[in-house]
Amino acid sequence: LPALSLSLSPSLPLSASGSEMWDDRRWGLFKRNLQPTLTLWSAFCSFGLCVAFLGPTLLDLRCQTHSSLRQITWVFFAQNFCVLLGTIIGGAFKKTFSCSLGALLVSTLLISAVFSIIPFCNNVIILAFVLAVAGLAMGCIDTIANLQLVRIYQKDSPVFLQVLHFCVGFGAFLSPMIADPFLSETNCIQNNLTVNGTFSDLTHIRKSMFPHRVVNETQFVLPTDGLVISQVSYAFWIMALINLPVPIAVLFLMCKQGFGGCCGKKNVPLLPAEELPPDLQMDRLSPGQEKTLRAKEPDGIIDCLKGLHLQEAPCTFFVVHIIGAVVLFMTDGILGEYSGFVYTYAVEKSLYIEPRVAGYLSSLFWASITLGRLASIPLSGKLKPATMVFINLGGIIGTFVLMLCFPVSIVCLYVGTGLLGFFLSSTFPSMLAYTEDILNYQGCATTVLVTGAGVGEFALQMLVGSVIQSPETDIFLVCGLTFGCLALLFYLVLLLAHRLHNHHRMADPSKTGTIEESKFSYQS
């Protein structure tokens, strides 16, 4: 033991020095990419604004469009489905950074335009169309921001991805706060029925609605004809103004990059190899190699797959893409179904919590997600992405087991909701960074994973919504535990695939990239 102690002690200063050098490297990259990084983060705040505004304002929008509860909840479906389509479409704009900025400019402008137009939508079909356009813009922002941030920072991307997803939580926290002062406290359609006071608790109705149907719709008595009295339009106009600086910031960055010659500048790469400091030039490519590599960059998923010489790729290459997407399919599905149905579970099942008290569960869930993403920023600099994903999946399973062990405990439900949000918060960015690292940033991982997460959030929310009213009181928690266990199982398969993929890559680096790229991956 003394000999072992002496042999290890000289390595401690080296470890500290290596950590300090890595921090300097990351800080140097951030300073050189300050403007594009801040622009991508602000775009994700726009994404967050759109994520959370619809739920609180839906009843006022029902009054505005003179529609029933069942009709108005279909706007959820329109937005969520088009978010999924947008994530796929966003991959078509990744050939160059300027092309991505153009799509980002259009998307962020569309979000401000949608916020401005919503108050004038007096028909539920028109409103659904407008929100579908917003969903497409949200999906494009989701794919482009994740993809470009990974492309900029690559091996150093986990910390910056955590900040990116914290911005979503911040935007999702901000939009309900803006809307709250303008929400109707009574039924916003006034007629003889509402004058006599026969209307339901609006807070309970807001919390009970989810994308494709309303729980126990017959118990809600809400008129569709009468005088509309609502001030929610001001909330949308305020959000439109708050979001307006984002497309302006994207436009400034486009001019700096010389997009399409709009400012008379040549379009240059974001981080030219010649401008990197000596400690960052160890594995840089020559200008000729950079030009060749840039010319081969794909436009979308199909072109991405065509450009990868799939006939030469090992089977582990495909397994990593598929299994990574399946893991996020499960974890983002848990996020979607839990946030959508935790209120319904609390008030309809064996707990029978008072509606106003149960309403805090959704707020607690999103607050813990935002707090978890904030805490993950320093943690991602200390822990590897693979370790963080494993801890998160274990925490998700443990939380559901805890809530199932005490199914009638209100305190346990609140504690479990907070823990679940915390463990889910950093799963997506950590998983994205880990999968891209396995593939040496050469595959289509970002596009595939973002699409898989979007499909999971949409599909599992629909699945749980179809069984939430079954006689089994704990079916909601059982579904979450099942999805969590499946996510952990597939993640263990991914760890095995990573090991096999590395073995194959080191044995024959020519099939997954150049020798220089394999050397860079090995040294990192």
Automatic annotation (TrEMBL):
Protein name, per record: Major facilitator superfamily (MFS) profile domain-containing protein
What Gene3D superfamilies does the record point to? MFS general substrate transporter like domains
Task: Indicate the family of this protein.
Answer: Belongs to the major facilitator superfamily.
Give the way it sits in the membrane: Multi-pass membrane protein
- Keyword hit for Transmembrane: yes
Give an example GO cellular component term for this record: membrane
Where in the cell does this protein reside? Membrane
The superkingdom listed in its UniProt entry is Eukaryota
For this UniProt record, the keywords arranged alphabetically read as follows: Membrane, Transmembrane, Transmembrane helix
Protein's UniProt keywords contain Transmembrane helix: yes
* InterPro entries (UniProt xref): MFS_trans_sf
| Major localization listed first in the record, in broad terms | membrane
Q: Which residues cross the membrane?
A: 38-59, 71-93, 100-118, 124-147, 159-179, 234-255, 315-335, 357-377, 389-416, 475-497
